[in-house]
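Pinned message: reference record for C2H2-type domain-containing protein
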Amino acid sequence: GKMRHACEVCGALFRKACEVTRHRRIHTGEKPFACEKCGRRFTWSNSLARHRRIHTGESKPFQCGDCGHRFRNVISFRRHQRTHTGVNLYACEDCGKKFSLSHDLTRHRRIHTGERPFSCRDCGMTFRLKQHLRRHQKTHEGEAPFRCDHCGRLFMHKRSLRIHVRNHTGERPYACDFCDQRFLRSDNLTRHRRIHTGERPFGCERCGKRFSCSHHLTQHRRSCTMTAPFTCTLCGQMFGKKSDSLGYHQQLH
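Predicted structure (tokens):
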């Protein structure tokens, strides 16, 4: 459906009138959902439901039998259990970092691919990790303490506000020592420096071709049809170059 309903305060568009009503609470500060145990109020019903678990004891139902530590979900629980066993089964093919759960490897690989699968329903911002989305959503609930004086946007952390303010002031504190370009963030500078140094840290495991950006490697992988002639005798993973990728991979075993 078309975005027919507009917020009269900021102009944000929504498909349904009820979505505008819910969105408006960001501007009005209305918190219609109250906890019957402690009286704390919330903008969203799901925030109240999450808060209620504190009183019911359901917030961390999974307990480790080795150390007694408790966890909110089974994924965190299983990840923790691996710290007692020391098992790390999954290795990142871009950087070699190892993980005890495939879920953790999938999440880590988004650093290399740039994927941001989690989207805020209120403002459309996207995030790499679900916990980053949850932290961001608190800004809509009025729980974020740091406000931008230029645009009013709220932040959970002072560092995030400081980086954001540079968009308004034009400050670029990170300077390239090879040319006169300056950058907003240190990771942008690191990526830019590879133009000068020729560094290509991301390699294709099929053909051995290397790239300066993980995004370029991801694009290349979609079209690379070369079969990998060299196989790791320990796990069966295949590689395009025996001396480079395979050698590094076997060190991980």
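Pinned by admin. Summary line: The chain has a mean pLDDT of 77.
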